[in-house]
Specification:
With about 90 residues, this protein is an all-beta fold. The protein contains no helices and six strands. The strands form two sheets. The chain has a three-stranded antiparallel sheet, with no helix packed on it.
């Protein structure tokens, strides 16, 4: 969860390796960056309740609870990358 000037969001951070321009040693950490992806706009969520997002065991969904529509509901958002069906 993160509060931003343009709303409150649940973010997914995907790790992306970048080319190593230094010493190639398996004992060193591989260089990389985290790419942020917005999953859910939480601007209507009332923070009397924490969303507590967590991954499902298969890592394909993020499950969280929210009272953005009044009562508390459990939501799931798919995090798997979409596959292009046109190919």
């Amino acid at each position: 969860m993160a509060r931003a000037p343009d709303g409150q969001w649940i973010y997914l951070f995907r790790a992306e390796l970048i080319p190593n321009r230094g010493i190639e040693d398996p004992g060193f950490v591989q260089p990389g960056v985290l790419r942020a992806e917005r999953l859910v706009n939480m601007s209507k969520h009332q923070y009397r309740l924490e969303p507590n997002p967590s991954f499902t065991p298969d890592q394909k969904w993020v499950v969280f609870r929210s009272n953005m529509f009044g009562p508390t509901y459990v939501f799931a958002v798919e995090v798997a990358k979409a596959v292009n069906q046109a190919e």
